[in-house]
Amino acid sequence: MVNSTARVIRVAEHGDASALQATTIPRPVPGPTQVLVKVAFAGVNYIDVSERSGKYPTPAPLIPGREGSGEIVEVGSQAQGGFKVGDRVAFLGQNTYADFVAVDTIHIAKLPDHVSLETGAAFILQGLTAVGLVRKGYNVQKGDWIVVHAAAGGVGLLVSQLGRLLGAHVIGTVSTEEKAALARANGAEHVVVINKGYEALEKKVNELTNGQGVHAVFDSVGEATFESSLNVVRRLGTLVLFGSASGQVPPLNVVRLAGKNVKLTWTTLYNYITTREEFEELYNEAVEFLEKDQLKVAISKVYAFDDVQQVHLDLEGRKTTGKLLIKIQ
Ligand code: NDP
User: Fold this and answer.
1) What distance in angstroms lies between residue 47's CA and the mean position of ligand 1's atoms?
2) For the segment 121-141, what is each residue's pLDDT rounded down to a tens digit?
3) 86 and 169 housed in the same domain
4) Is 269 in the pocket of ligand 1 (CB under 6 A)?
5) 131 domain residue, yes or no
6) Where does the Enoyl reductase (ER) domain start and stop, copy by copy (predicted)?
7) Measured from the CB, is residue 224 less than 6 Å from ligand 1?
8) Are residues 148 and 262 both part of a single domain?
9) Residue 302, beta-bridge partner list
């Protein structure tokens, strides 16, 4: 028998990490096309910070969280995918800082027996994002030069690994020597430690590519990196924006792209997985990398449910590397 309440982390009004407060709400009731998941781990993503603070236009009150793992405890009457009670799953959803979450079956997957619930929660959003970036944002080719910003972060470590796996030369940016070592261990052939501005990156790219620039830049930092990203991309290269950790990129006069015929895109994972088929295609490819041991998920810390304020402080304070999880139950 499932409890009739759910324990959640709620943000009543946008604000700093202290806005994250534990509370109890009525347990969600799954719709006909949904399943109810008893959540084991919620993955933490930078977007949770942006939504909590109000930098993203998600209205408050809100329950943060975009992914998790756990066990199915109820299945809606029209749920697709053949899910049943007891299945171990990982999923993308909303409001996942909670012990029970109703999830649409479009974005949920049964975990292979040997994949733990920790890895499932750690992998599903950032793993699919990383595969989407290197396949669809810019299709990385053997011999390419690519720049990966925030290369020791959750997504950054995975993009660096995939870049190397696909035969590219990866140049990562990070803010500390400690992060640099981790980025190197995860596929970044060259790492630039950023102290003040990103001019050091431009100098390094010039040296390494004989002034030609890189084939692609994967930029999740946004405002602080955008000008350098445009400077280091080569003629006919691609700049893939996918995040705004430092703030939004200001409006751009697109005529500037004519200088090098640069392709500019701002990609979101969700636009790659609008149907179950699209989700499965990306998920299967990502899981194959995982199963062949070609992709390692670095879970750097698992926080207790009552420690959720600390995880946000650490993430926005640039203190973290790799993946962060909250143990829900
Ligand atoms: P990370 O673990 O990468 O954490 C963010 C990192 O950004 C920091 O550790 C820091 O690394 C770097 N950073 C640079 N400048 C700043 C700044 N001014 N403030 C804070 N951090 C800064 O987070 P995630 O892996 O969760 O996400 C990475 C990015 O990808 C985020 O921007 C996120 O929104 C985006 N994203 C986008 C998706 C999409 O579909 N478009 C999906 C998933 C994530 P350092 O100190 O080394 O510079």
Assistant:
1) 9
2) 999 999 999 999 999 999 999
3) no
4) yes
5) no
6) 15-326
7) yes
8) yes
9) 325
Residue type, 308: V
Sequence-distant contacts of 309-318: CB under 8 A, at least 24 apart: 309/17, 309/18, 309/20, 310/17, 311/44, 312/17, 312/20, 312/44, 312/48, 312/49, 312/52, 313/17, 315/44, 315/46, 315/48, 315/49, 316/17, 316/49, 316/53, 318/175
DSSP letter string over 48-82?
HHHHHHTSS-PPSSB---SEEEEEEEEE-TT--S-
Residues, the chain: 329
- Domain co-membership, 95 together with 197: no
Give the angle subtended at the CA of 17 by the CAs of 49 and 323, to the nearest 5°.
Answer: 45
How much distance in Å is there from the Cα of 163 to the middle of ligand 1?
A: 18
Question: Which atom of ligand 1 is nearest to 47's Cα?
Answer: 34
Mean pLDDT of the chain: 96
> How confident is the model at residue 80, as a pLDDT?
87
How far does residue 265's CA lie from ligand 1's centre (Å)?
17
Encoding tokens for residue 257?
């792209």
Is the pTM here over 0.95, yes or no? Answer: yes
How far apart, in Å, are the Cα atoms of 169 and each of 25, 165, 177, 231?
49, 10, 20, 18
Domain count, the chain: 2
The confidence score (pLDDT) of residue 3 equals 60
Q: In the block, which residue shows the tokens 């943000």?
A: 11
Q: Closest ligand 1 atom, CA of 154?
A: 25
Which of 155, 175, 217, 324 has most ligand 1 atoms within 8 Å of CB, for mutation?
155
Residue 192 maps to a domain: yes
Low-confidence spans in the chain with pLDDT less than 50: 1
Question: Could you tell me which of 142, 146, 133 has the C-alpha nearest to residue 233?
Answer: 146
**At a CB cut-off of 8 Å and minimum separation 6, what does 133 contact?**
155, 159, 218, 240, 242, 267
Give the residue numbers spanning the domain of 26.
5-125+273-327
In a domain, 133, yes or no: no
Nearest to 192 by CA among 222, 229, 141, 230: 229
The helix or strand, by DSSP H or E, that contains position 89, with its residue range, turns out to be strand 88-92
